[in-house]
Structure formats: C-alpha cells, structure tokens
Amino acid sequence: QERSFIAIKPDGTQRRLVGEIIARFEKKGFKLVGIKILVPTPEHAAKHYEDLNKKPFFNGLVKFFSSGAVVAMVFEGKDVVRTGRVLIGATDPSQSAPGTIRFDLCIETGRNIIHGSDSNESAAHEIALWFKEDEIA
Ligand code: ATP
Ligand code: MG
C-alpha cells in the first residue's frame, strides 16, 4: 500500500486541531499506521525541509517548525500522496479550495498547520527521517 508522511505543525497542535485533522484523513478512508508527538530539534526541522534551504523563508520556517509539538504520522492507502495533498489544499490558504484543511482551518502561508509529502520519493525519504520501520503498524 502507498504511504504518505503527514505532520501537524506546531500551530495545529497549539490550536487543538489534531483530532480534526486526523478525522479528515480517516473519514476519507486512509489508515493511520504511524504516529508520534515531539518537539523537533532545529536540525531535524532543517533536514525535513532541506529541499527549501535556498529559500528566503527557510530560517523562519525551521524556527517555526521546531517551536512546539509536531504530530508526525504515516497514512496508508490508494493514491494517498496525491489525494492527501488534495485534502490539505494549496500552500497559501487563501489560494486553497473550500473544503480543504488549509482553507477551512487557517489563513497564513507561514502558519498553514499541516505538512504532506509531495511525491512518493519524498514520502519514502520523510518516513525514514521520522520513523523506524518497527514503529509503523
Ligand atoms: P509542506 O511541505 O509544509 O506540506 P507545501 O508542500 O504546500 O507545504 P512547500 O513549498 O513545500 O509547500 O513549502 C513548505 C512550507 O514553507 C509551506 O507549507 C509554508 O509554511 C512555507 N512557505 C512556503 N512558501 C512560503 C513563502 N513564500 N513565504 C513564507 N513561507 C512559505
Ligand atoms: Mg512541501
């Protein structure tokens, strides 16, 4: 089965949106097979977003992502990487479609509450960065 790495960012946990976000993935039919909560180190956050390390917002992104509790998850199911991104919505919440997590629950690009893998390759890379294989059901 296809897997995607999904993370609730510190703003999502601080705003008590963990249950809401998990419910949307579960109601769609995806299976939660890995979950943990932790405050990432800045080094871990930088590795997670290493593809963006030349962007002007990189330092702010790393600082924010490591500023509080993150719920790291693995969801499994048919086409979960692409469909998971559809559930999440566009990076900028103001450009996202109604009914998506980002449209419905947040406003700012820099506080967009959730991360989802953007390809099968990045999913495999991110799952390996956050989980040991024996932590996945
Ligand atoms: P994510 O990887 O977190 O799921 P994404 O794939 O939709 O988001 P990316 O291009 O990978 O978007 O950017 C990662 C994160 O960096 C975004 O979710 C957002 O919080 C932040 N970001 C992206 N573009 C900008 C920007 N122009 N200004 C500020 N922050 C940005
Ligand atoms: Mg991304």
From TrEMBL:
Residues covered by the Nucleoside diphosphate kinase-like domain: 1-137
An example Gene Ontology molecular-function term: nucleoside diphosphate kinase activity
Family of this protein: Belongs to the NDK family.
Catalytic activity: a 2'-deoxyribonucleoside 5'-diphosphate + ATP = a 2'-deoxyribonucleoside 5'-triphosphate + ADP
Active site: H115
Whole sequence portion shown: 73 to 209 of 221
Essential cofactor(s): Mg(2+)
Enzyme Commission numbers on file: 2.7.4.6
UniProt protein name: Nucleoside diphosphate kinase
GO BP terms, alphabetized: CTP biosynthetic process; GTP biosynthetic process; UTP biosynthetic process
Species the sequence originates in: Dictyostelium firmibasis
